[in-house]
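Internal tracking record. Fields below are filled automatically when a chain is submitted to the structure queue. Please do not edit lines marked as system-generated. If the sequence contains nonstandard residues, flag them in the REMARKS field before resubmitting.
Queue: standard
Priority: normal
Entity type: single polypeptide chain
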Amino acid sequence: MGQPVTFIRSSSPRPGVVRFELNRSLTGMGHESYAVGDEILGDRPPDVLARRIFELGNVSKIHMYSSMVTVTFATTEQADLESVVSDLFTYYVPGVEIPDDEELIAMVEG
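SYSTEM-GENERATED OUTPUT FOLLOWS
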C-alpha cells in the first residue's frame, strides 16, 4: 500500500553524480544537504530517503531541493537507487501485516 514515487533519472556532466526529478516535492522550497558520516535524526521524507541511500554505500553526498535529488557517489561504481527512490512512500510490502480498524483506533487514542 502506498503510492510509488515516479521519477526521471539523469546523469550529470560530472562523473559520479546522478539526479532524480521526482513527481512530488520532498523539501518544499528548502535545501537539504547530507554528507557521509552525518547523523540523520529526522523522520521527514528527505531524511528517510537520505538514510536509505546512504545504507546502500558508496555515496558521499546527497542534496535535495523540492523534487530534485542529487546523489554524488564516492567512486565511479554506482548503486541501484531506483527502487529506493520509488519505494519511499510504500508502507505495506509483502510480509508486513496491515493493522485492522481496532489497532488503528488504539494507535490514535493511545
